[in-house]
Every structure is written in C-alpha cells, then in structure tokens.
Design a protein that fits this description.
Number of strands: 5
Number of helices: 4
Largest sheet: 5 strands, mixed, barrel
Strand order of the largest sheet: 1-2-3-5-4
Helix content: 40-55%
Structural class: alpha+beta
Order of helices and strands: HHHHEEEEE
Strand content: 15-25%
Radius of gyration: 29 Å
Distance between the termini: 81 Å
Oligomer: single chain
Number of domains: 2
Length: 150
C-alpha cells in the first residue's frame, strides 16, 4: 500500500492538498493560498475525469496557480480608492503663511483644512513668501511641506 502512495499521485491527493491550502488561508489571510488550493482541487477533478499523467497534473496546477494569482492581483484585490493618510492627500488645500518663508528657507503655514491631521506646518519654498500670503501645497516631504504662492 505504501509503495502505491509513493509512486503514484491520485486524484484525491490533489483534492486533499487543495483543501489543506484553502484551510491554511484561514491562518494566513492573504487570499493567495485560496487560489492555489482551488487550482489543486481543479487538478484533482481533472485527474479523476481524464486520468492525466503526473507531469500534466503539475503543469496544469502551475498554470492554474499563476492564472489565479494574476487574476487576484490584477482584478480582485481592492486598490486604494482614496488618498487619506497619504502624502498626496489634500494637495489642493490652501493656507496662510504665519511665519515668513525665505528662498529655500523654512517658515510656517496654517492651512484652512487639516493636512494629514494637522493645520499648522513648517514649510519651505523656492521663492520668498511674506507673512499673510496665501499659499498652495506643492509637495509633502515628511514633516515639511513645500508651498508656492496661490
């Protein structure tokens, strides 16, 4: 009996392997193992119906696994739909200079609406901007915002 299991991969081995992969998805949570497990179960069903060779089974599993991963990353995985919390969030927000900004120097700006959770920011500019001027965000650079005259 053990010789049979070591020399031949039966259809139910693929089903069991697929169920193992799908079950392991519970602990991993990436949904990648789900596609690999479904691919293995499809190979098991195909092997049961058509009695394919081991090489064909492995090739079919590799193709179905790659296809499931491509589908997952291209179509099913939810892309980020909003910029909240990202460095390009609210780049259209205007503010008022509260401390003069010199050319490539540092000043301070108070924005009309919070930018990444804060209304007061240290800012730089490629031009001199006097206190009280309206400015717009060019780029967020960590804890420093580059601005230009609005």
């Amino acid at each position: 009996m053990l010789e049979l299991l070591s020399t031949e991969l039966l259809w139910w081995h693929w089903i069991a392997f697929g169920l193992f992969l799908v079950t392991s998805e519970i602990f991993i949570g990436t949904f990648m193992m789900l596609g690999l497990g479904v691919a293995a179960m499809l190979v098991g069903v195909t092997d049961n119906l058509f009695k394919t060779s081991l090489e064909t089974e492995l090739l079919l599993w590799i193709i179905l696994s790659i296809l499931s991963l491509v589908l997952w990353f291209k179509y099913l995985k939810n892309p980020q739909t909003e910029d909240s919390g990202q460095s390009n969030y609210t780049l259209d927000t205007l503010g008022v200079v509260t401390k003069e900004i010199t050319h490539n120097g540092r000043g301070q700006v108070q924005f009309d609406t919070p930018v990444l959770g804060n209304t007061n920011w240290f800012a730089t500019s490629k031009e001199d901007i006097s206190e009280g001027s309206r400015v717009a965000i060019v780029e967020v650079k960590g804890q420093l915002i580059e601005v230009k005259k609005a």
